[in-house]
């Protein structure tokens, strides 16, 4: 066996055939790197195979038996050192048997294996700086243990226990256990009464001062019994007992046998397991060899990334009971409108590919276009002597509409007051010609599925009667040719005043001529990023839903019951490109989509950033609306958010604040999300963001038992967040197509695949950073 010791901890690696029953007053981590080991802890047997980890808690009674060729790493951290660095140490025990851990703890266990392997390797090098490096690894290990494997002890709860007093007392015991150490002396050194110290010590550590001192002395006595030939008196006196009789009585009270019986039984068994002295030396030499250390390198392959782990665990308990909390229904499928600017943009091959992908993954019902008559889609009339012109006016429009018809996507045409009155007579003449042509070419059934919306600016000096006149004329022209085509209006509702501007009041008494209502809701418009307080951000978090519900109440009050379409909307983004790029919003978008499903008939999105900036705004200000794609076909958060929501099939079997569970003929689907609302400017603060990470301990109750293939898609800033890779690989000198393609291809949610035997009650851990989404499919095994 190799042994490397530090003043405050002990790390060993060796072949353990047998380790006699013992108690260690501290925390031990056993890690099998080769072969097998059977560990009995307080009467319970744990079978460890290669790669398994087991924790031994302070005062646990345990024995180890191992296979002939096993290698076991043992990290021992004494109580006095642990409590010195983690004052709440005695509030908890630490539990980990890697075989029995719930799914979702794989990353944590992998990091623990790596740290233990690194600690052994660092000690073996004995280089300059090794001590500092080893101490760093030790503290990382302790941090991992305290975050992810602690279990509260029932006897703890004293408010005073978090100070350093207990740490000082325990450290003194560890240093002076071989001396007479009366309680009164310790109490005096801490300026306490003996009675108070005794009660305080037991309340904190779970045992009395004298009992603790006895356990420390016995720990050292056991080592002497097994590894020396000294008599009982020598062992007793060396370790703080006044007589061999006192030592024997104390030993028997803990180990249920005398020191003589213990030595005879376990020293002989230990000797038989290890073999003769030559064999023991040979085994030690083998473990010191480069070959033995090389076996540990496979545990270094897992990337050590503490930032990927939440700051506290186990975190929030999330119990999901199948059939409870809003179950037994179908997810609402609102219509999806994708805006592309002018109709001619559909002829762009990249736009075609994006529309097709959005249709396949996200379900697209309408493509939204504008500037049909006054834009560049319709070609100018060309004088020709040809009987049939070879440059037809509607060539571009026909190609674009044919592509949409093949994809079963309807047209959503936005007509503004300004473009109509620019040359009103010409406009309606051109519109009539377009309608007649498309009805002839594409058929009445397809054209009647389109929607037309009349838009006038929110703030306009145009009289209400004038807007009403133009709308009614538009309504008349369209219905003359396509009598089933729906025509709607944009309603600029002011939620803070619960009103409309005077220019738009005409809609309230012409509702019988309006088929649907469109509106917008951009949370960024109601937030002053330079002055708003954190409380204001929290108050604005449900702005889109609140505005929608207030608008519905307003319309109902005026006897208007038309369906609503939310054209342009946005969650908080920040008012700079940098802030926008560091603020991941996946769960915020998902929550909004889920909330709106029961409130609106349709929701709009822009196809990509380039078209949005071309037709919807400019580069210097945030514009309302969410894009599905960034430049170079990179997928924005709205794309993946919609994709996961659209994959949810079957009946909703459970619904909660942070989850949706559905059941279908193939199994179950679970959507988990860690929705966090805060000022987006804080997203540049790494510590702030880490504090908004969360770990859910999810219990699924009531699933049909059986074998399942479990697919887990993780979508967060590091896994699918486009701007993270963009920021890492960007350069002020520009980037080429190779870099751009890499960014796009590597910015996608990660997928994990596992086979699980699930009973009715199944649990797992889900580590989630701020606004992360976790989509899990449980597919029933066939056969």
For the structure shown, list the relevant keywords:
783 residues, alpha/beta, Jelly Rolls, Arc Repressor Mutant, subunit A, Immunoglobulin-like, 4 domains, 7-stranded antiparallel beta sheet, 27 helices, 23% strand, disordered N terminus, DNA-binding transcription factor activity, AraC-bd, DNA-binding, sequence-specific DNA binding
Structure commentary:
- The chain is of the alpha/beta class and 783 residues long.
- It folds into four domains: 10-152, Jelly Rolls, CATH 2.60.120; 159-269, Homeodomain-like (Arc Repressor Mutant, subunit A, Orthogonal Bundle), CATH 1.10.10.60; 307-330 and 648-782, Sandwich (Immunoglobulin-like); 332-381 and 390-642, TIM Barrel (Alpha-Beta Barrel).
- Helix content is 38%, strand content 23%.
- The strands form six sheets. Strands 14-15-16-17-18-19-20-21 form an eight-stranded parallel beta barrel, surrounded by six helices.
- The chain starts with a strand and ends with a strand.
- The model is unreliable at 1-6, 155-162, 274-287 and 618-622 (pLDDT under 50).
């Amino acid at each position: 066996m190799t042994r490397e010791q530090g003043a405050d901890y002990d790390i060993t690696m060796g072949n353990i055939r047998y380790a006699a029953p013992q108690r260690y007053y501290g925390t031990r981590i056993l890690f099998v790197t080769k072969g097998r080991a059977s560990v009995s802890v307080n009467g319970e047997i744990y079978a460890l195979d290669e790669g398994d980890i087991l924790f031994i808690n302070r005062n646990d009674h345990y024995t180890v038996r191992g296979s002939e060729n096993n290698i076991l790493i043992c990290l021992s951290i004494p109580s006095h050192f642990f409590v010195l660095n983690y004052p709440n140490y005695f509030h908890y025990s630490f539990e980990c048997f890697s075989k029995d851990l719930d799914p979702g703890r794989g990353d944590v266990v992998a990091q623990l294996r790596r740290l233990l392997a690194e600690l052994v390797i660092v000690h073996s090098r004995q280089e300059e700086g090794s001590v500092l490096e080893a101490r760093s690894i030790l503290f990382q290990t302790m941090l991992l243990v305290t975050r992810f494997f602690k279990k509260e002890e029932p006897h703890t709860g004293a408010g005073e226990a978090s100070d350093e007093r207990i740490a000082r007392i325990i450290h003194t015991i560890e240093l002076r256990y071989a001396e007479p150490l009366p309680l009164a002396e310790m109490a005096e050194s801490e300026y306490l009464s003996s009675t108070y110290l005794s009660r305080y010590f037991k309340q904190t550590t779970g045992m009395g001062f004298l009992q603790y001192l006895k356990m420390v002395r016995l720990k050292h006595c056991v080592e002497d019994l097994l590894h020396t030939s000294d008599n009982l008196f020598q062992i007793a006196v060396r370790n703080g007992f006044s007589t061999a009789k006192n030592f024997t009585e104390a030993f028997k009270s803990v180990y249920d046998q005398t020191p003589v019986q213990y030595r005879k039984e376990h020293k002989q068994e230990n000797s038989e397991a290890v073999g003769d002295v030559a064999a023991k030396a040979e085994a030690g030499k083998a473990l010191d060899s480069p070959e033995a250390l090389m076996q540990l390198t496979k545990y270094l392959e897992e990337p050590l990334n503490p930032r990927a782990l939440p700051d506290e665990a186990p975190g929030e308990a999330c119990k999901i009971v199948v059939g409870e909390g809003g179950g037994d229904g179908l997810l609402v499928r609102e219509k999806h409108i994708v805006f592309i600017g002018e109709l001619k943009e559909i002829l762009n091959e990249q736009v075609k590919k994006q529309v097709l992908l959005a249709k396949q993954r996200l379900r697209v019902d309408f493509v939204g276009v504008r500037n049909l008559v006054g834009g560049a889609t319709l070609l100018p009339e060309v004088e020709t002597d040809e009987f049939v012109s070879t440059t037809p006016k509607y060539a571009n429009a026909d190609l674009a509409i044919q592509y949409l018809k093949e994809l079963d996507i309807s047209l959503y045409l936005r007509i503004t007051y300004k473009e109509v009155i620019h040359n009103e007579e010409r406009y309606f003449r051109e519109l009539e010609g377009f309608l007649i042509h498309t009805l002839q070419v594409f058929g009445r059934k397809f054209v009647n599925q389109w929607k037309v919306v009349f838009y006038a600016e929110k703030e306009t000096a145009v009289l209400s009667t004038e807007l009403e006149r133009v709308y009614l004329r538009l309504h008349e022209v369209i219905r003359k040719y396509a009598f089933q085509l729906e025509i709607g209006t944009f309603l600029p509702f002011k939620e803070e005043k619960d009103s409309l501007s005077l220019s738009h009041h005409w809609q309230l008494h012409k509702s019988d001529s309006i088929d649907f209502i469109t509106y917008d809701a951009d949370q960024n418009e109601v937030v002053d990023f330079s002055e708003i307080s954190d409380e204001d951000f929290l108050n604005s978090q449900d702005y889109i839903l609140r505005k929608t519900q207030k608008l519905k109440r307003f319309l109902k009050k005026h006897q208007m019951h038309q369906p609503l379409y939310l054209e342009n909307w946005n969650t908080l983004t920040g008012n700079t490109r940098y802030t926008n790029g560091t603020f991941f919003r996946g769960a915020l978008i998902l929550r909004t989509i889920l909330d709106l499903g029961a409130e609106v008939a349709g929701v709009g999105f822009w196809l990509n950033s380039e078209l949005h900036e071309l037709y919807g705004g400019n580069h210097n200000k945030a514009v309302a609306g969410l894009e599905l794609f960034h430049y170079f076909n990179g997928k924005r958060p709205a794309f993946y958010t919609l994709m996961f929501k659209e994959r949810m099939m079957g009946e909703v079997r459970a619904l909660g604040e942070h989850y949706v569970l559905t059941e279908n003929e193939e199994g179950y689907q679970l959507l988990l999300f860690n929705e966090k609302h805060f000022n987006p400017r804080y997203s540049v603060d790494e510590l702030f963001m880490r504090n908004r990470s969360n770990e859910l301990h999810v219990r699924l109750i009531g699933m049909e038992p059986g074998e399942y293939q479990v697919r887990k898609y993780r979508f967060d800033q590091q896994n699918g967040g486009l701007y993270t890779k963009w920021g890492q690989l960007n350069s002020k000198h520009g980037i080429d197509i190779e870099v751009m393609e890499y960014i796009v291809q590597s910015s996608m949610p990660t997928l994990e695949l596992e086979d699980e035997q699930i009973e009715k009650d199944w649990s797992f851990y889900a580590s989630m950073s701020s606004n992360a989404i976790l989509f899990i499919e449980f597919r029933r095994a066939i056969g």
